[in-house]
Amino acid sequence: MDVGIKDGRIISLRQHLPNDPNVLSAGQLIQAEGRVLLPGFIEPHIHLDKAFLLNQMTQDANSVEQAIASTLELKRSFTKKDIEARSIQVIQQAIAHGVTHMRCHAEIDPIVGLLSLEVMLKLKEHYRDQITLQIVAFPQEGIQKQPGTEELLIQALQLGADVVGGITYQDGDLQEHLTTVFDLAKAFNKPLDLHVDFSDDPSMLAILTIIRMTHAYGMQGRVSVGHLTSLGSLPYGEARTICQSIAEAGIHVMSLPATDLYLGGRGDDHRHRRGLTPVSLLLEQGVNVIYGSNNIQNPFTPFGTADPLDIGMLLAQTAYMGSKQDVVTLVEMVTTRAAQALELTNYGLHIGADADLVLLEASNLRSAVYERAPRRFVWKRGQLVASTVKQTTFYHTQMSS
Ligand SMILES: [Zn+2]
């Protein structure tokens, strides 16, 4: 296909004809030569403010609790400058990897106050022509546990946070925590994005309360949940019933395999579970499932380069997603399915959509994902924002006969 772009939007999509006079009249012509063009990648769940902390850590973290505790300590010395520098490092990596939209969780608590949110708002504005940032006001340390947090969340939303965040495994009273965040989402008319059931304990099922409340608040389609790994430890039949209810409530599920594989399943001394969201079961029951990086080089996830295809590949390898159809699903998860969860408009490869595009050095989807093909060009609303050329030189490669 030939793609025509004008004023940042896709204005034509048609069969490639070698000597089409309209194409030749374009101001700039890029020969893609059969390579894969996709709508820009969507990173639906990432923490910029606590990325790249490895050098500051005094000891390794080996559980969710240790990762939270370790980050809490490091947080005390966060400064605006330091949050900004580490966030920019991730944003630039992400842009180079073809990411055009990113939902970022900003920590909101009495320790950092609104520091992180202020940096995110500044970066959102600064990078608006390169990447669209959505900011989640995220009470990582709990709401009731840290008095003053609810007031800070309200201020964050008044200052321009796009999404209400929450976490089901920090406060003692789950119902109270969820009532606070559902009420805020309703009052400010914002989507809700929750960290949910991040555990190997199958009895941890806050998702059931979330399903109920999603219906009660009429928020079907506007609630996303990240992790949801304890569901993967439930017996199949019980898990399947819950997956059906998640689909009925229109809740989006964000699998975060890099963090979940690293921290999950560690309590098992044999038959190690790998601590993943049950992705295939959720998909099979019609749930909108997507995947995110979550963290970049910190106590929760010591890995990562903000490349969504690394995470897609990780999920493919660990969730048995290797079929020809699976790769289509993996690509939808990082594009159109994620766009649904993030409530993006004008997104996709169709006429009228924003020309947020990524051209991969691959001629089919399998090589695009499996080789995590270089992102030759990345465009945001029709403007080139990054290009990558991978070059390998071989020496002494002649076969001796
Ligand atoms: Zn997270």
Automatic annotation (TrEMBL):
Q: Which keywords describe this protein according to UniProt?
A: Hydrolase, Metal-binding
Q: Which SUPFAM superfamilies match?
A: Composite domain of metallo-dependent hydrolases (SSF51338), Metallo-dependent hydrolases (SSF51556)
Question: In the record, what terms sit under GO molecular function?
Answer: deaminase activity; hydrolase activity, acting on carbon-nitrogen (but not peptide) bonds, in cyclic amidines; metal ion binding
Q: Does this UniProt record's set of keywords contain Ion transport?
A: no
Show where the Amidohydrolase domain sits: 94-385
In its UniProt entry, what is this protein called? Answer: Cytosine deaminase
Q: What is the lineage of its organism?
A: Bacteria, Bacillati, Bacillota, Bacilli, Bacillales
